[in-house]
Amino acid sequence: MTKPFALATITPSGNRVVERVVQAMLRDLPDASAHFTRIPVVGDTGGVAGYDMARMLDAATLLSHAQPDVVSWNGTKGGALGFDVDRALCGEMTAATGLPSSTSALAILDALALLKARTIALVTPYDAAYQAKCIAAFAAKGYPTVAERGSGLLDNFAYGLVPGGDIATMTRAAIGERRPDAVVYFCTNFGGAEVAAEIEAACDVPVLDSTALGVWGALRAAGRSTIPLAHWGRIFAL
Q1: Closest residue by Cα to residue 66 from 4, 18, 8
Q2: Cα–Cα distance between 89 and 87 in angstroms, integer?
Q3: For 79-105, what is each residue's pLDDT tens digit?
Q4: Burial class (CB in 10 A: 0-12, 13-18, 19+), 137
Q5: What digits encode the pLDDT tens for the residues 171-223?
Q6: Residue 95 contacts by C-beta under 8 Å, 6 or more apart in sequence?
Q7: What is the pTM of this model?
Q8: Where are the domains positioned within the chain?
Q9: 6-103, what's its fold?
Q10: What CATH architecture applies to the domain 107-210?
Q11: d(CA 53, CA 89)
């Protein structure tokens, strides 16, 4: 008997977007299931403290009891911390569970490399200070931001209330300012997945939504094809 594919996801506690998007995406995969554990991320997230590694590993271990194929941290905090912390996190999660692991932030970097992108437009719900941290982190990895827009928010829960239409408007304004090789929606409590394919079709530029890329990265870590999810964005067809 073939075991159905199971994706285990750690999500921030103040997030309403991750579970909705992940479950919607997995409907396109036969016999796939999504399983979630939350860690505390609530209120003002502008301080960007490091990971509570013990809590993250507890979450991964609890998810491993369901015998999933992969464990994913569907959050972008590691990006603001410089990305390398997510590589350490993946190593720790795999050591603790024996499972492949991935993060949304690392998936974004992998997708940019696969696309051979050199520049990005960064669209987020953040305020200017947090946005600057993300821009610096991408630049340090070789991806300068040539255009950006933010919603000016600091509260984690509020990020998920930005309408898709507003995200599309912000994206078009950023692209109109200076055309990038790819657009990055960098926050997993941000409804970019629902407008990514629309923007790609209208503006002919790849759009990488961090919540959707969390699934993309997890599938790749588990050795699964992403092609059945191609309608979520062109990166899934590569």
Answers
A1: 8
A2: 5
A3: 989 999 999 999 999 999 999 999 999
A4: buried
A5: 999 999 999 999 999 999 999 999 999 999 999 999 999 999 999 999 999 99
A6: none
A7: 0.96
A8: 6-103, 107-210
A9: Rossmann fold (3.40.50)
A10: 3-Layer(aba) Sandwich (3.40)
A11: 8
